[in-house]
Design a protein that fits this description.
Protein name (chains A, B, C, D, E, F): Manganese catalase family protein
Radius of gyration of chain A: 28 Å
Order of helices and strands of chain A: EEHHHHHHHHEEEEH
Strand content of chain A: 5-15%
GO molecular function (chains A, B, C, D, E, F): metal ion binding
Keywords (chains A, B, C, D, E, F): Calcium, Manganese, Metal-binding
Oligomer: homohexamer
Helix content of chain A: 40-55%
Cofactor (chains A, B, C, D, E, F): Mn(2+); Ca(2+)
CATH class of the largest domain in chain A: Mainly Alpha
Pfam families (chains A, B, C, D, E, F): Mn_catalase (PF05067)
Chain lengths: 293, 293, 293, 293, 293, 293
């Protein structure tokens, strides 16, 4: 169960409206790595969790915070849009380039669809998608997904930080940046704890019997490009992070195997085949006309 | 530049057709964490890279391999579909439940649209989307994204491994599982090397001045749920993985701040406002009628 | 701010697993009119509201409940999937039609992607989309959208009610049906109150100056089909619900006006035009070759 | 059957081109509540209707009109784009801010993809989606959907009305506004007639046996937020619009029920489980290796 | 303007219901090359046309027919769904595999969302998308798009023809197949006429000054794979279809040019760069902290 | 197998950065007819091919080239973005219209998401979609699709050619234009060769028995609009391009057949039906309550 309180975790008030910036903040609200994504992602990971206790408590505990972050951003965006231009006549657009420029940089749908409000979309107006959510039931994989989401997310707050000098906006962003710092650290720590406790290990999924994978190629770096320096990294020699092998470097791929011959499905799929087949196909179709009709 | 050779990196031939399984393999080909995703993701990360040398060589070297994996899966899927049922009359569907069942489990579009061929879609028929690709220009963030992609990807090969006992299919999957093992290890090693060399560090982005974030909340676990055990993890006390702080545990959130008052944009957005505003709004609209007309 | 408690508003436990039904319930969770939609819709309407007080309190109060409904459904789905088949060999699919049938009716991604878990998608696997959310800032329009959402939503619970006889599932559905009954009534009542208080009226938006619309056609039913009975309804005669006019019936449309001539944009868009234009276009292009090069 | 006449229902000619405005009008043509949506929605409702006569005649009669509205808007957009800038050199963009501003506010795809033409997309370039269409087979639900569509639609014409002073554009918009006024009234009247005739009633679907829903909570307003005024509305006390109950107000939710324990699906889904399970899982996997191989 | 008549161009009645087949027909109605696509495509091409007369008349004349085809298919689908199973209890699914199989092969949303009705989606439930429409303003390009659409479309009717033996369904399909035959012929004829009349020519767009393209590579077949037979086709030697050159065959690509060095955007994008740059970046960031704060 | 070489097929370097133009080039990279589409389309057609030899070699040979075109465009876009504005304060936006205009015309996600990099999206930010790919297994249909793709693609390079005067950009575009010229010619030649060799013919699919289609309407132009000139084209009289008939012109459609009566699915779908049915429905539901409970 979720409960709502009409308060914000942190102040979310700009010094002044800025409709162009309101569009940019949509990325942080409704983008691939925006707040809707992490809120829903931690929720689904919790609901799909197969183990009670601290890991699931963590997912619940942080997920509800993220729903509050959605709210702070939506509130901020609505205020940034408060003086959004609307009644701009064509003359103004053509004669006052500053006004025109603002029109060009704003999100048309924040105006026409939401009436100067926030929307569950990104900064290019793409609707938020359930496809952004990762919740596999395997916590080591999912905590890595979460670490990535918080890294991309902090990048996507840091960049717009420099696109405004509004102290109110920056105040909220500095709060979000710090929470992203926490969440990066947290998921990395949680992933490490999973491995230490033996609950999961590399490679994910760690319980898949290694004997069923093709161990000969399990630690080879195979270079399919002509870059000469890919062999200099620690992924090309030395022990592997999963503790189960040694990296090796293959400067160019072994010859492959011949591709199997093309398929010949039922002639009634009407694909293009070899000439002898064409005759056969025609015959088959004629036959088919008799049979099926 | 890319070059193609009419060979496969590994054998991709099923022992016998299985149209139901052909649908499942679409996930590994065209799903969120399928081969199209990693091929395109490593490509875009390389093209967006700001640093020449081993990291970019790595991206190019592995990216081209993944394009070949797309090909192996498409080839496999086409063969699994070779005997896909087509001419199933209604009676057969209703009288022979086995045939009917197979029809139910197959991908209708593999038949009708591709004529018993592979498609750039997932196992539910959702078209592959460019939104699956992450390429931020920040390599620590992106290598973490890649590690996650290879973890989810290996999970999504391991699960269908148990959904068939076709030796030919399993042979290919065992190869893909091993390459995913390599790639998990590789991206984790590459991320570690980035930190060791000082090219990037936690929190991402590490060059954003920490003084600009709200450091008071940068290492607090704040519990927005009532789970009692979230404080037991290593994310709740002790040094943080970024080496810059100490985790602390906040059992329940501090009181927030009052939300700002609702916004009142231009009356010509026709939003619903307070009654006094309604009068004003009507007056404004009347005035507007005079002015703008 | 949102807070979470590790409880459910109502019991969500099936009597036994049923992987086929787990797919159906995705519609109620993540479909166009599923619980994610109403939770997010009421949230965005509250955040975009321009008026404090009872209407916004209502949106907040009901929105948080809906987030809890998402949770109940996700929990139910995970349990329905608990015995989902996985290790089905090809022989089993072909020899045991019952098993095969179940495979055909299940959501492949619930298995492969979520590991027998719930997902933010509908019953055909389409990811939930932010485009499902309506939040215009105009409360009379939005409460009508909400009434519709609860009607479609209740239909979409009533239908699957008959697709199972699991008492545990039906117990949860009977709870959701009742809440949808409440919410239909509630939004209809709230819309009526808006009109009674004079905050909004028909036609929406009620403050747009009627003098600016083409009042001659504002209450005409114009019949563009040849159905003879469309004139029998109360939309074809008598007073209009907005209290501002009388319906009239136009049995077939007036002759229209001639369409304007086709456009002729810049020749460098390379559209197809009339022959004389073609010569001109070629000349222009030749000139352009001189000028721009 | 549909027939076309090369006329427009109303004049659709701007006084002068305006490429920035052409983008805005895409919302009215191809947005969630644009003309394509209502044309297709009324069509599908008619084709899915289960009852002949006035209601279906109404759907057909109005649906064909809406297809003509698509045409008027596409015609208008093409004319607004007639002088769209194309050969803008980089210097011009950097030196003449007015030209640059216009470039910023235009739809790049109207130029590059359609060659200065209209497209089936919204004002942010999102393709029109079949997911916008609601056609459930239940007319009371669907007429409410239609009333909402016409309300949102009229809002989305009223707002852009103030974004231009082109008399030709406004002339068309004033016509569309009036038709939306008619259609709001019409669907509200039709919904009322359905109830009066006893064909449908509240709550939708009205034939679902009420005894099967949890009547105890069918009329409770339960406040999941801390707003104090949600109890002041007519949704919190008094008779309900469906005429079957009395609203009541529950100031805060009852304690919930404990969530069921986490699920433990087949170990071959490789989810993360408790430590004892881990051992078991490993054993199971080992066994599996023997069995399945 | 569009007008509707409550008749069908051809009979659309199945001999008996078949819910599994109803899903397949969704491809022909709402798929990428289904009837909605061609109806909308011909409409947008007409509205974007820059030339009055026979070509635009053709687009209008055929476009309206296609809207009627949507209607025939929707009508057919609704009838095929008339006996769609609904009240299937869990026991029935597990004990009667025939019923279960049918459940597996049906479209869940046709049942739950549309109440046994047609939907604007394809056979996998993907909503129809405006992105399927091609309307560029260049008629030679667009008529080629149309020829392709009618070819893919006829394929997608021919394949399902063999998936049923219902005489009523086949009767409608035989009508649609014939119309697709006409439309393939028609668009090919229209494209030829455009070239004969000199309105357009190859390569499209034919008025782009050839002197501005890199003529050295305008007729070279360059072989980026190792297939030996690509040189045997008429695309590798002899005159080109545009009448402006001779094909030549390049057995393997010339060496390319070195890729430009990686980019170094503003340090505040926080991309990963070379180590010296890292120091600089840190200094820049420090400076930035002073400047911007 | 694919191999990568760190070279470009052609120089891809702009004379100077231009962030506004970088957005436009996204269309050529990631739009419906951009380079990702043709690369993937030729790949899937090859993998789905049913015939070895020159046609499949052609697909492989050209497909790999297109992957290299993706790379050239991504490289170009990154350079165009190298000086993309980021630290634009609100004052600058409001006071320097040139800077502001550039902000308005740029792709916000290239900045915030990719850190001044290229993305797999079009010029409006829509993610590239697998739905753009056509690969039916029928080569005559698919080569026509390819000819169309290269025509639309060359149009979409020709138009942006005039939107810049940067010599470096134009140099790359002139190369791409020439390759598109080649590819248009090539697919038209390949389609002709398929017909000459008898592998495929018109109408597609040519092996579908013509006796099964409704030959009476296979060559009729039926005019559903009132344009008088559609009968003047070569699609209205004379021999048909498939060589199997004669076009005829039908100035207006024959009367159609009556639509079948509305459907009456199971009452538990809760659709709206006739009044007698309503009673029945209620009775049925009551009965159902007894039976199913």
């Amino acid at each position: 169960m979720f409960f709502h309180r009409q308060e914000l975790q942190h102040r979310a008030q700009p010094d002044k409206p800025d409709a162009v910036y309101a569009r940019k903040l949509q990325e942080v609200l409704g983008g691939q790595y925006g707040e809707i994504t992490v809120a829903m992602q931690y929720g689904f990971q919790a609901w799909n969790a197969h183990i009670p206790g601290k890991y699931r408590d963590l997912l619940y505990g942080i997920g509800a915070e993220e729903f509050g972050h959605i709210e702070m951003l939506a509130t901020m965006i609505a205020q940034l849009l408060e003086k959004a231009p609307l009644g701009v006549s064509d003359d103004a657009v053509q004669n006052d380039p500053t006004v025109a420029a603002i029109v060009g940089g704003t999100d048309v749908q924040q105006a026409i669809v939401a009436g100067a409000g926030a929307r569950p979309v990104d900064s290019n107006g793409n609707p938020w998608s359930g496809a952004y959510v990762t919740a596999s039931g395997n916590l080591l994989a999912d905590f890595t997904a979460n670490a990535n989401a918080e890294m991309q997310g902090r990048l996507q707050v840091a960049r717009p930080y420099h696109m405004t000098d509004d102290a109110g906006v920056r105040d909220l962003l500095s709060f979000l940046l710090a929470r992203d710092t926490m969440h990066q650290n947290q998921w990395i720590a949680a992933a490490a704890e999973l491995r230490e406790e033996g609950a999961e290990d590399l490679p994910v999924p760690s319980n898949f019997p290694l004997g069923k994978e093709d161990r000969d190629v399990a630690y080879q770096y195979i270079n399919f490009s002509d870059g000469q320096q890919a062999g200099d990294g620690r992924w090309a020699s030395g022990p592997t992070p999963d503790g189960k092998g040694e990296f090796s470097y293959v400067p160019e791929p072994e010859p492959g195997v011949p591709a199997p011959p093309p398929t010949h499905p039922d002639s009634r799929f009407y694909g293009t085949t070899e000439l002898p087949n064409i005759v056969e196909k025609a015959a088959g179709a004629a036959q088919d006309a008799l049979d099926i009709e």
